[in-house]
Amino acid sequence: MRIEADLKLDFKDVLIRPKRSTLTSRSQVDLNKDCKFLNSKKHWTGTPIIAANMDHVGTFEVAKVLKEHQLLTAIQKFISPNEWKKMNKAFPEVVKSCFVSVGIHEKDLDQLKAVFKVVDTDFICLDIANGYVQGFIDFVKRVREAFPHKVIMAGNVVTGEMVEELLIAGADIVKVGIGPGSVCTTRKKTGVGYPQLSAVIECADAAHGLKGHVCSDGGCTVAGDVAKAFAAGADFVMLGGMFAGHDECSGEIIEEGSKKYKRFYGMSSSEAMVKYHGEVAEYRASEGKSVNVPYRGPIEYTVLDLLGGIRSTCTYVGAAKLKELSKRTTFIRVTKQINDIYTPFQISD
To answer: Is 125 a catalytic site residue?
Structure first.
C-alpha cells in the first residue's frame, strides 16, 4: 500500500482564467476539429462531442440531430444487426456518424462482424467499466486485426500508462473516466476512481506523445465542464446525463403531478442488468443507479446551448479554433464557482 499525495482536481475545483482576445464575436470561433487517427489512419472533421452509448441516449434519433451539427453518437450496445440494418435504411447518412458499441466477449466480435456487413460507418466503441483487465487489451488487439481501417475507441481508464498500452494495442481514441458519471456508483461501491480533470490532463499528455487521442467520459454537468475538459487536453468529450431527458431519447414521458420526466440509468445499474441479462449476477454488485430526469423537450436546444457555451469559452481566452483552447488555458483553483443564492427560485436556465 502507498499514498500519492500529489494534488488531483475535478471540474468543480477550477475555473479558466480569461486572457486578452482579438475575437469580436462568438461566431468567429471554429468548433470543428481535424483528426488523423493513429492506427486506422482515418481522417475525420467535426465537432468532437459524442453522445454516450447508454440506454435512452445512444439512439439513432439522437444521432440524427447531432449529425446536423457534425457531432457523433455512440449507439448503445444492445442493438442487433437486424436493427442496425433497419436503421441503415432509414438513416443511411446518420449511421456514418455513429459508433458501433460492444463489450469484450467472443459474441461481441461476432456482433461487430455481423453489423459491418450491413452498415457503413468507420467507428467502433469497445466499452467496459474496468479497462485495466488484460483481456481488454487482448480484445483491442483482436478487433484491430479484424478491422484494420476502423476508428477504435476503447475504455475506460484513467492513467497514462494504460492509455499508452491501449494505443499500442490498436486503439485510436482512449476513453477516460472511472466513476464520474451522473448515474455511476462505482466510486461508492468500490472506492475506485480518479478526479476527472486530472485524469484528462495526465491521459491526454500520454496519448499525445504517441499521436493518439483521448475522450473525456463522465463528470460534465454544464457546458462549462465540457469546455474545461477540452481545455484540459481532451480531444473528444462524451456526454450521457447532459443529453438525457429529451424527445429523441428512448422511453416514455413519466408524469408525476404537474411535472414530466424521462428515465435514465447507468448501464451497470440493477435496472440495466435485469433488462439485458435477466438478473444481477450473485458475484457482482450494481454500479449504477436509475433516475427520472426532468423532461427537456427537443435535444436541438440543448445542443445549441452547449455549443454556444463552448464558443463563449474560446472568446474569453482568444482561441479562434477549438484546438487552440488547451494551449491558451490557465486553470485557477477555486473553492467556490457559482453564486447560487437564488437557485431555489429559478424559473429557467
So the answer is: no
